Amino acid sequence: MNGVREVHCPTCRQLTVYAADNPWRPFCSARCRGMDLGAWASEDYRVATTPPADADPDAPRSPIDREGDRDR
Ligand SMILES: [Zn+2]
């Protein structure tokens, strides 16, 4: 063993070296790392801005909202 450890990139599943000289570890590249962070960011954004519709069943819904739902 020479201490080199290889892991699968979480984004593209490519085998990549997990070591101090790989700044993108555990990802294989800046692109894969950016894609993963982007997914996290968009997930946070969605959760923060859109409350679940059925979280509060007693909350009154405006007629305008219902009209919009019927259109879809
Ligand atoms: Zn990758």
From TrEMBL:
Single GO MF descriptor: DNA topoisomerase type II (double strand cut, ATP-hydrolyzing) inhibitor activity
Coiled-coil stretches: none
Residues at which Zn(2+) binds: 9, 12, 28, 32
Keyword hit for Flavoprotein: no
Gene Ontology biological process terms, A to Z: regulation of DNA-templated transcription
Cofactor(s) needed for function: Zn(2+)
Cofactor note: Binds 1 zinc ion.
UniProt feature, compositional bias: Basic and acidic residues: 63-72
InterPro entries in alphabetical order: DNA_gyrase_inhibitor_YacG, Znf_NHR/GATA
Keywords of the record: Metal-binding, Zinc
Residue numbers spanned by region Disordered: 48-72
Subunit structure: Interacts with GyrB.
Function (record text): Inhibits all the catalytic activities of DNA gyrase by preventing its interaction with DNA. Acts by binding directly to the C-terminal domain of GyrB, which probably disrupts DNA binding by the gyrase.
Family indicated by similarity: Belongs to the DNA gyrase inhibitor YacG family.
UniProt protein name: DNA gyrase inhibitor YacG
Source organism per UniProt: Rubrivivax albus
